[in-house]
Amino acid sequence: MATARAPAPLDRAMSRQRLTDRVLAARSARVASDSVRTRRVVQAREGMRVKVDGQDLLNFCSNDYLGLSQNLEVIAALQEGAAWHGVGSSASALVSGHGSEHAALENECAEWMGYPRGLLFGSGYLANLAVMQSLLEPGDVCVQDKLNHACLLDGARLSFCELKRYPHRDVEAAMRQLASHKDGAAMLATDGVFSMDGDLAPLRDLALLARAEDATFYVDDAHGIGVIGPDGRGSTAVANLNAREVPLLVLPFGKAFGGQGAMLLGSEALIGHIAETARPYLFTTAPAPGMAAAMRASLRLIRGEPWRRAKVASLIARFRRGALRAGLPLAESYTPIQPLVLGDNARTLAVARRLEAQGFLVGAIRPPTVPEGQSRLRITITAAHSEHEIDALVSALTIICSNPQTAEA
Ligand SMILES: Cc1ncc(COP(=O)(O)O)c(C=O)c1O
């Protein structure tokens, strides 16, 4: 009987795809579809004024919604935290990296939001990976809005559970997806404010659904916390939901808090389990103590100085009035995220470039960050902008978008 011959090493080498060839082909495809992404070096920053490639620009693509990243009290807290506790935390949280600033921030956030316990992560991305990897397993289901942030999707993938995605804000579709999967545990996860659209999730209906279906409801409020709701408590406070109705809530600090990291809030049982078992919590260095101190300062300002929220709200209203008058394609968003959906990549890039030539830095967001055919300018409005700057942006947009050259680009 003939036996199969093992392939000679040379044959194997010849059939294998080379990674370099693959990435070069992918790069060519991105060039052809105007999807290349490049980093820019921000050489200087003062409020929303930035210097990029030697050019002074007004930044309309920052998530620093309250302008706290450059607030002197927040900066002083960071410096003092580093002076007292060192720059790095020197170990993972469960070894010796969890210090008094981290613990105080966890307690203060939990008290503020009315949750039993907080757990501090180095980023929102890590927190989302941790929640799903540690709580869900094969046989479980995680039902998510199609427009959820990428890290919620990645978290579900890391848990090897079944991931189901319902059309944007479609509670009935979510209900069907949960109802069709009765084995194993279930999680219903959504952004509170959608990062590329600025609209709010139907949180009250989703909370009711989660309760009816015995699913754990999980909200990521990266873009709502600090900016909307009573006391700046975000989208769940706008929906008047409490810790019983939203048993798990994550508050990333990279946006309105003006820093870095994320606070996960939940019950003793859920948070305790995540703290002991989540690989993205266990196997990473704890956040810098100075950053924890800075985020405590941001929390004090968010709670104690509501004028920043009021100012953003009034600038958003001003932008929307001007943009509506000019016939710009506004979306249904009343948060600092004001997308102008232009459709194709080339036109979006062309408009962004023209804006830049006139002194405005605006993000041109293209697939895969947004669905195909929905490329957009993601304009963000912050408390560090002025009325005059909002009016200047609207005027520039009006002229550029009505110019036939950019209309056809
Ligand atoms: C909804 C949402 N969740 C999580 C993240 C990630 O948070 P971080 O930047 O802290 O990793 C982002 C964006 O960065 C986001 O928009």
Shape: globular
Give the C-level CATH assignment of the largest domain: Alpha Beta
- Distinct compounds present: pyridoxal-5'-phosphate
CATH homologous superfamily heading of the largest domain: Type I PLP-dependent aspartate aminotransferase-like (Major domain)
The largest beta-sheet arranges its strands as 4-10-9-8-7-5-6
**Low-confidence parts:** none
Overall helicity: 40-55%
- The percentage of residues in β strands lies in 15-25%
Number of domains: 2
Give the terminus-to-terminus CA distance. 67 Å
Tally of helical segments: 17
Q: What is the total tally of β strands?
A: 14
State the CATH topology of the largest domain: Aspartate Aminotransferase, domain 2
- Rg, please? 23 Å
CATH architecture title of the largest domain: 3-Layer(aba) Sandwich
Average pLDDT rating: 94
Modified residues (N6-(pyridoxal phosphate)lysine): 255
EC number: 2.3.1.47
Organism: Arenimonas oryziterrae DSM 21050 = YC6267
Protein name: 8-amino-7-oxononanoate synthase
What are the salient characteristics of this protein?
alpha/beta; Aspartate Aminotransferase, domain 1; Aspartate Aminotransferase, domain 2; seven-stranded mixed sheet; 17 helices; binds pyridoxal-5'-phosphate; Aminotransferase_I/II_large; pyridoxal phosphate binding; pyridoxal phosphate; AONS_Archaea/Proteobacteria
Question: Can you describe this structure in just a few lines?
Answer:
With 409 residues, this protein is of the alpha/beta class. The protein has helices at residues 9-15, 19-32, 72-85, 93-97, 100-113, 124-135, 150-159, 171-179, 203-212, 234-238, 268-277, 279-282, 289-304, 307-325, 345-357, 387-402, 404-408; strands at residues 42-46, 49-52, 55-59, 117-121, 141-145, 162-166, 186-191, 216-220, 248-252, 262-266, 337-343, 360-361, 363-365, 375-380. The longest helix is centred in the C-terminal third of the chain and has 19 residues, at 307-325.
